[in-house]
Amino acid sequence: MKLIVVEEHYMSKKINEQYMKEMTKIVSPAVCSRLEGLQGFLENNKEISDLGELRIAAMDKQGVDMQVISYGNNSPMDLPAETSVQLCRQANDELAAAIKKYPTRFAGFAVLPVGNPQAAADELLRAVKQLGFVGASLNGAYNGRFYDEPEFYPIFEKAAELNVPIYFHPGFPDEKAADYYYKGENIPTAVSAVFSSFGYGWHVDVGVHMIRMILSGIFDKLPNLKLITGHWGELVPYYFDRIDETIPQSLTGFTRKFSEIYKEHVYITPSGIASRGPAILAIGEMGADHVLWSHDFPYIKRDDVKDFLMGLPVSEAEKEKMAYKNAEALLNL
Ligand code: CA
Known about the structure:
9% strand; binds calcium ion
């Protein structure tokens, strides 16, 4: 069975150098050391900056036919607009060149300079129309601002107009929130740093972000808008019944229940989490029509991504949808 995975990452050494130089000027020493941690990944993992044979070889080994690639964390989208606009263009151009070389194996989600939402909308347009990208990916909120704020509306308006989805990928939570929730005198700093981010905290953060998008009413304004989110929906599908019960339409004023809006506009992916319980729960809540597959390469490198899907207790037709048919339809591949 064909397999298309949609949360796969690359980073550019050249762009990261510039990124670190600019970020060091504006973030606290604590945040800087987190960014250095991710830079370490770039230095120690050849695959993350490879958009050629190394990546193709890994895909062949894993039974992956196509990767839809997006920029990893330490993304140029975090920077102030003055530097971000140019660096995001550069990153998208770099990925576009690789897609041109391997058009049947790679596709791309653009990185956007969200610090200037109009420039981000323009870059999305350029990436889709000129570079052939199939959407965009956002790594966490921007500088403590969530995307349901009105200033970011042009980005989502453009995505809806172009009929491409936006992937809500996790990023480091705001420093104040991270300190409040994840620091403790009895928790070592190194443990707290992971706890606040990929250990747990940034999943909660992006789950809350998705809920905020729905509660902001953006899907009434943009009925064609589609979002994707990883890690089996970042805990949200688990709480559908609770949210419908406690934040009802009489409170929101929406014509549909929270879970109905979510299930119509959101697609979820595993991001390499191969545990059966969460998979069955998420597929059961969302339906196979709104699940895409993903590996989270090369942050996660495992050879059972396809076997895990094939071993799930769902029908062949549902496996086909999750393995490639949904991705082909949503991303127009
Ligand atoms: Ca990821």
